[in-house]
Design goal:
Elements lengths: L14 E6 L2 E4 L5 H20 L18 H19 L8 H6 L1 H18 L1 H4 L23 H10 L24 H15 L10 H7 L1 H4 L25 H9 L15 H12 L6
Subunit structure: Component of the cbb3-type cytochrome c oxidase at least composed of FixN, FixO, FixQ and FixP.
GO molecular function, one term: iron ion binding
Family: Belongs to the CcoP / FixP family.
């Protein structure tokens, strides 16, 4: 049996008989223009179904009577742009990164191309301004794990860090705590010594000096200056990849993090890789 309907005393509109917490629903019909627009959209959607790609299939999709695809158009435009870009880069493909840097015309193109490629491929990790973040190095300072010369940067971009190519740059810091090489108190002591390398005010650092010499100096050097051939960071400059607090250093010595950078050779064309090397070198941290 239908609920009893009544007229709302304020608006004079009939109610639907629905009530929630004392609020009664008014029987206000939708505007005619809205209904006609709604019906037109339904008719349009039916037409779209037949004329344009609309439904996914197992391995493809329906192409529609017009066989039109904005995706294919976008791919054609992208391919045309790449072809035009390569035409403008005459001489860049055969030039070394040093030759590109020395040639004003090639340099101008490489800088523009490299800046765009950096935004598309590198900024998600290193930041849009290349200032880096926790676990991702800044590219604007002079602190380079593997060298900041133009050729060094070029090689790193090509083959990556701890990536898949045989020429990738790789290093492995031992897990001194996890593998039981050092005891907890020894790790605390060596962390104090590492902190003292950049902050002489740290107290009690001498206790970890011999531990550092026996376990860390082989890679980081007796003075903690690092070794770019091994990718061992400089511990004296207060630039820290995973944090410079004692807790962060203890965590890294106990069970170190090892960052991975993809190898861009094969993902990006040679011209783009060279352009990236030149652009990154120009940011201010390149040597």
């Amino acid at each position: 049996m239908m609920a009893h309907k009544e007229l709302d005393r304020v608006s004079g509109v009939e109610t639907t008989g629905h009530e929630w917490d004392g609020l009664k629903e008014l029987n206000n019909p939708l505007p005619k223009w809205w209904l006609y627009l709604f019906y037109a959209c339904i008719i349009w959607s039916v037409g779209y179904y037949f004329f344009y790609p609309s439904w996914p299939l197992v391995q493809s999709y329906t192409t529609g009577l017009l066989n039109h695809s904005q995706r294919l158009e976008a791919l054609d435009v992208t391919a045309a742009g790449a072809k035009a870009r390569l035409a403008n880069a005459t001489g860049l493909a055969d030039a070394t990164v040093a030759q590109i840097k020395a040639d004003p015309k090639l340099l101008e193109f490489a800088m523009a191309n490299g800046k765009a490629a950096f935004g598309d491929n590198c900024s998600p990790c290193h930041g849009s301004g290349a200032t880096g973040g926790p676990g991702f190095p800044s590219l604007q300072d002079d602190d380079w794990l593997w060298g900041g010369k133009l050729d060094d940067i070029y090689q790193t971009i090509r083959f990556g860090i701890r990536s898949t190519p045989s020429d990738t740059r790789t290093s492995q810091m031992p897990a001194f705590g996890k593998d039981g090489v050092l005891k907890k108190d020894e790790i605390e002591q060596v962390a104090d010594f590492v902190l003292s390398l950049s902050d002489p005010a740290v107290k009690g650092a001498d206790k970890g000096k011999q531990i550092f010499a026996d376990n860390c100096a082989a890679c980081h050097g007796d003075a903690g200056k690092g070794n770019q051939e091994l990718g061992a960071p400089n511990l004296t400059d207060k630039i820290w990849l995973y944090g410079g607090t004692k807790a962060a250093i203890v965590a890294q010595v106990t069970n170190p993090q090892h960052g991975v950078m993809p190898a861009w050779e094969g993902r990006l064309d040679p011209i783009t890789i060279k352009s990236l090397a030149v652009y990154i070198h120009s940011l201010g941290g390149g040597k």
